[in-house]
Design a protein that fits this description.
Helix content: 55-70%
Shape: globular
Strand content: 5-15%
Oligomer: single chain
Largest sheet: 3 strands, mixed
Distance between the termini: 26 Å
Number of strands: 10
């Protein structure tokens, strides 16, 4: 489930960043000013019955989430914005040709992020082209939901409506989790925790049958196998980069080495794995995505710690999601009290 953080950011370190803040601030403001109260939207004849039904579902999901965690209900998702495009924003992830590490963009107050988001696709394309001229590989990913982490009362976006009911529940629970738990400058951890809680809460909300749960477990294991394969390949690729950069090879030579490994190892072995797992080509992300250093880096941001979150819950013996959340919250308080000289991610998992 792809989501992102979006803010009106305040950082005047450079003219380009100031321009970015101004342009994206206008996009954020447009989302807020064009939002209408849900009841007004529900009364509009131009809004389809299906979209109205999903607005009602989102209101139910919201109530369920805040009741479950015993949190005060706020104004998030009390309004709806009808967009003139399918995606709400577009993420640009960049990484150098000789490493798999997302280029970080840092902003005062909210920390650093491994991407930049653009409300306009053309702006994302222009930014990607500029990065490529500076020696980066890039990937652009459409995003259908985002969170301002409680800084604003986020509206429902018409881009949400592309999801099925259970996918929509997972999305809303994911975004709402960001509003109750967020660690500055640790996007990968924030996303993986939100992914985990979003998925688990969606299954819990719909009270799926035993057979559904068993099927989900099988699908989970398949995704886990694919995830391990990709992460393993990335680690091997990183070692290859380090060895070859020590030989003072050019960026073009290093890029060719990567492409050779992709064609002779990653793609054929990945296709074989998907076939063994019974994954159709359309469901095998190894073969249906254009991979480069940037897309690998973006993938790791959202998937790298998924298994570790599941393993952590088993290790601490949390019977319910609520207990597991309390454990994470208490560990974060402990981390802050100790003023640990490490990331919270390492403090949590080790």
């Amino acid at each position: 489930m792809l989501a992102c953080f979006s803010f009106i950011l305040f950082n005047f370190g450079s003219c380009s960043k100031l321009q970015y803040v101004v342009v994206q601030g206008k996009g954020q403001l447009s989302l807020l000013t064009n939002a209408k109260n849900n009841q007004d939207v529900l009364s509009q004849a131009s809004v389809s019955k299906e979209h109205k039904r999903k607005i009602g579902l989102i209101e139910e999901y919201k109530k369920y989430f805040f009741d479950y965690f015993n949190k005060d209900v706020n104004g998030i998702y009390s309004k709806t914005t009808i967009l003139d495009r399918k995606a709400v924003t577009y993420l640009v992830v960049a990484s150098k040709y000789y490493e798999i590490r997302p280029k970080e963009e840092c902003f005062w107050f909210v920390g650093c992020f491994p991407y930049l988001g653009f409300y306009d696709m053309n702006g994302a394309i222009d930014h990607a082209k500029n990065l490529e001229q500076d020696g980066y590989e890039t990937t652009i990913r459409p995003v259908y939901a985002y969170s301002t982490l409680g800084h604003f009362e986020d509206p429902i976006l018409s881009s949400f409506f592309v999801y099925s009911d259970q996918e929509l529940a997972e999305l809303i629970f994911h975004e709402l989790f960001h509003t109750i738990f967020f660690v500055s400058s640790e996007v990968d951890l924030n996303e993986n925790l939100a992914n985990y809680f979003g998925k688990e809460m969606a299954w819990q909300y719909y009270k799926r049958s035993v057979s559904d749960i068993e099927e989900s477990a099988r699908e989970k294991e398949k995704k886990k196998s694919v995830r391990k394969f990709i992460v393993s390949f990335v680690k091997e690729l990183e070692v290859t980069y380090e060895k070859n950069m020590a030989k003072n090879l050019t960026l073009e030579q290093v890029a060719k080495i990567r492409l050779d490994k992709m064609e002779t190892q990653f793609l054929p072995q990945g296709q074989k794995l998907c076939k063994e797992l019974g994954l159709e080509k359309s469901r095998c992300i190894i073969t249906n995505q254009m991979w480069n250093n940037a897309s690998f880096a973006g993938y790791l941001t959202y998937e790298d710690k998924m298994d570790r979150v599941d393993e952590l819950r088993k290790r601490v013996g949390s019977a319910s999601l609520k207990e597991f959340y309390s454990y994470i919250e208490n560990k974060h308080k402990e981390y802050l009290d100790k003023k640990a000289k490490t990331t919270f991610s390492k403090f949590l998992f080790e």
